[in-house]
Design brief:
The structure is a single chain. The protein is an all-alpha fold. Helix content is about 65%, strand content about 0%. A hairpin with a 5-residue loop joins strand 1 and strand 2. Helix 5 packs antiparallel against helix 6 and helix 7 packs antiparallel against helix 8. It is globular.
Length: about 200
């Protein structure tokens, strides 16, 4: 699988987390975040020229493997990778026989982009009025994943899921497997505990 060229970037987290930084520090920080995303980890050599920027350096932790990571970037990249892998796995499950694979390969390849784009938020995207209700529902429900991750938008996302028909119906609509159901179920329960 090719390297993912993008990661979800939570602008409000970045702005609040860098509010006291100088513009130089912010520039160094975003550069290091991008470098970590591209390389997967940072070395002493990568950080050498930034060592005197204490506020920037405080955003990176040296792990047991000796490499440095921004934990939020690491988490976001891993979640996106897991999501992409789950979509790929779900597509493969649907096409188990050789005959099915050859018949649906072109259709699935064209659909990969549509599915992936729908998962990513894009407020400027025009909706196609001719979409079926199911495709629209999936697009809307996919966007709720990001809202569920953020404590400030969790309640409204959870309310939307309840109005849709509950967590189980939400999981079914997105084609979650048992592992995904467990992970998201635990995440939702933990957030509910925090908020109550």
């Amino acid at each position: 699988m090719a390297k993912d060229p993008a990661v979800l970037f939570y602008t409000s987290d970045f702005l609040s987390g860098t509010f006291t930084m100088t513009l130089d520090d912010k520039g160094a920080y975003i550069t290091l975040l991008c470098l970590q995303h591209q390389k997967g980890k940072l070395t002493d050599r990568d950080l050498h020229m930034y060592k005197n920027m204490t506020e920037v350096m405080s955003k990176f932790v040296q792990m047991e493997d000796g490499f440095y990571y921004n934990l939020k970037m690491k988490e976001c990249a891993e979640k996106r990778k897991a999501y992409s892998e789950s979509r790929r796995t779900n597509r493969l499950k649907k096409n188990t026989s050789k005959q099915n694979i050859s018949k649906t390969y072109d259709k699935d390849i064209k659909n990969i982009s549509k599915t992936y784009v729908k998962h990513m938020e894009n407020e400027n995207e025009n909706e196609n009025i001719n979409e079926t209700v199911t495709e629209t529902e999936v697009a809307i429900l996919s966007k709720l994943e990001d809202k569920l991750m953020d404590i400030t938008t969790f309640k409204s996302a959870y309310k939307e899921i309840q109005e849709y028909g509950g967590v189980e119906k939400y999981f079914n609509a997105l084609g979650y497997d048992e592992s995904q159901r467990n992970n998201w179920g635990n995440h939702i329960n933990n957030k509910l505990k925090i908020l109550t």
